[in-house]
């Protein structure tokens, strides 16, 4: 094979990525600037400008022996990002990267399929192999440096020259349609990765901010046993308790539960929503760093003397349960309801009696569900709960009809209905001598194909309501009956996960400066 210059490989790689890995970007651009006589020249200029920008970007990153590794890395990243953007219409930003970094092997396996392998092979591995096998022609150090400067300066000049005739369109592109840049592959993902990595190394020595050291429980005669269920990807409009046409909550309907029909999430991913909902910060003030360096409501309850246990059938607690008792139930060593790699949520109820009976204090148990984790919704429930058919039986959601996807999703909700009803039955055993209650709140919602969107994780400011409007349910034991009328009055008001912090403190009658009665949706 003929030896090539590094500039040749850089230009070739840039063109390949723009033409074959950026279908999602250009699809969204065309939605704003349609293909017609007015916009065609501008759209063609975008291909040229984006290609030149990648040439500039790769030239700055790659030098001599690092050229091939950098270009191969770019091709692999672009192939994977292209698959997820084209298949699920998701955006790869720092929040999504944080979610990916916290994903476990079970969740990764759920995403594997032949289509992903084909994308990786055709758009990643084969062009990467071509780069690997192509011999490079090197000149002297000074020659290579001069060539590098020429390419960088030349790319900058050409970008300006190509953009100038379409300046009014580029002005609107950058000012009014900033979201379009989020779809550039792989540049936005790499920028987001840089933001994520920087955040991980930032302020590592900040001491933990202690909350609620003054917390104490107002005296009460009966012990409190509360179970908080953190749901997964459960959108409110698919709960029959909220008026959905399919009966997804038949058992809960009999339990006299109260559905908070207007509950909204703090984020659109588990990695953001779970730590945010337990934090003292409102959504607008919350950040990952604040969440890491500040105690949460579980810590405050522990300070007050409540025994806290977190059981997890999802990936993990996202740092929420770092300082309380924690049990990982997504394995068959603890969870006796595991079969063929799927551990059922119901298994988290087994053995809870021993934790409750070994304590004479108030108890909070948090159960973190697998719930409606996608895209393999059909794996989230046993065969006996396949009530709605035909159901999508693959993780390639685009291969299923909208009806099949919704049926599989609703079957998973039906199993959550069973799990929550069993949780209530478990609490009823303790009702005669204890104050009991169950709170259920999903971490985020889910897109099921509306507008071509699937799953979740779209940046909050542009995310559809389906990804933010979450299921939330409260069941209270007989001794809380006096509160019922007030709770029911609050049920249809607008609430968010910001309210959970004070609501949990209020349930345990905790007195503290960090408790805000106005934020308590049960008061």
UniProtKB/TrEMBL annotation:
Its main location: membrane. The keyword Acyltransferase does not apply. It is found in: Cell inner membrane. The keyword Lipid biosynthesis does not apply. The chain crosses the membrane at residues 43-63, 70-91, 111-131, 151-170. Residues 225-510 form the Sulfatase N-terminal domain. Signal peptide: none annotated. InterPro entries: Alkaline_phosphatase_core_sf, EptA-like_N, PEA_transf_C, PEA_transferase, Sulfatase_N. CDD domains: LptA. NCBIfam families: P_eth_NH2_trans (NF028537). This is Sulfatase. It comes from hydrothermal vent metagenome.
């Amino acid at each position: 094979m003929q030896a090539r210059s590094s500039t040749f490989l850089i230009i070739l790689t840039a063109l390949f990525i723009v033409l074959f890995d950026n279908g999602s970007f250009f699809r969204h651009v065309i939605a704003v600037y349609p293909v017609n006589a007015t916009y065609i020249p501008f759209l063609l200029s975008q291909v040229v400008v984006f290609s030149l920008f990648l040439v500039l970007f790769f030239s700055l990153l790659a030098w001599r022996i690092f050229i091939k590794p950098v270009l191969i890395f770019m091709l692999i990243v672009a192939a994977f990002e292209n698959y997820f953007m084209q298949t699920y219409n998701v955006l790869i930003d720092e929040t999504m990267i944080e979610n990916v970094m916290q994903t476990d092997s079970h969740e990764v396996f759920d995403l594997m399929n032949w289509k992903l392998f084909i994308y990786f092979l055709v758009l990643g591995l084969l062009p990467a192999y071509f780069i690997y096998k192509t011999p490079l022609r090197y000149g002297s150090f000074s020659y290579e440096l001069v060539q590098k400067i020429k390419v960088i300066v030349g790319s900058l000049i050409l970008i300006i020259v190509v953009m100038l005739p379409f300046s009014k369109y580029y002005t609107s592109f950058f000012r009014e349609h900033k979201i379009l840049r989020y779809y550039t592959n792989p540049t936005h993902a790499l920028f987001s990765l840089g933001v994520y990595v920087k955040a991980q190394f930032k302020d590592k020595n900040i001491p933990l901010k202690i909350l609620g050291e003054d917390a104490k429980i107002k005296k009460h005669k009966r012990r409190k046993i509360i179970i908080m269920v953190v749901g997964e990807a459960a959108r409110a409009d698919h709960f029959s308790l909220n008026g959905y046409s399919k009966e997804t909550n038949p058992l809960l309907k009999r339990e006299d539960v109260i559905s908070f029909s207007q509950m909204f999430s703090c984020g659109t991913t588990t990695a953001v929503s779970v730590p945010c909902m337990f934090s003292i910060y409102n959504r607008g003030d919350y950040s990952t760093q604040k969440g890491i360096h500040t105690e949460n409501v579980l810590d405050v309850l522990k300070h007050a003397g409540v025994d806290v246990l977190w059981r997890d059938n999802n990936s993990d607690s996202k740092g929420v349960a770092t300082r309380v008792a924690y049990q990982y139930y997504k394995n068959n060593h603890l969870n006796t309801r595991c079969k063929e790699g799927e551990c059922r949520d119901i298994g988290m109820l087994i053995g809870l009696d021993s934790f409750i009976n070994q304590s004479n204090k108030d108890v909070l148990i948090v159960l973190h569900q697998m719930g409606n984790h996608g895209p393999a919704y059909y794996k989230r429930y046993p065969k006996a709960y396949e009530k709605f058919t035909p159901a999508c039986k693959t993780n390639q959601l685009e291969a299923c009809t909208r009806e099949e996807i919704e049926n599989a999703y609703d079957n998973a909700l039906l199993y959550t209905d069973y799990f929550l009803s069993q949780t209530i039955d478990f609490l009823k055993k303790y009702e005669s001598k204890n104050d009991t209650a169950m709170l259920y709140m999903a971490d985020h919602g889910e897109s099921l194909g509306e507008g071509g969107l699937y799953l979740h994780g779209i940046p909050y400011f542009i995310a559809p309501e389906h990804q933010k409007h979450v299921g939330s349910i409260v069941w209270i034991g007989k001794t809380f009956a006096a509160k019922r009328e007030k709770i029911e009055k609050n049920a249809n008001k607008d609430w968010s996960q910001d309210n959970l912090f004070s609501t949990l403190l209020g349930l345990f009658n905790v007195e503290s400066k960090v408790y805000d009665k106005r934020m308590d949706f049960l008061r």
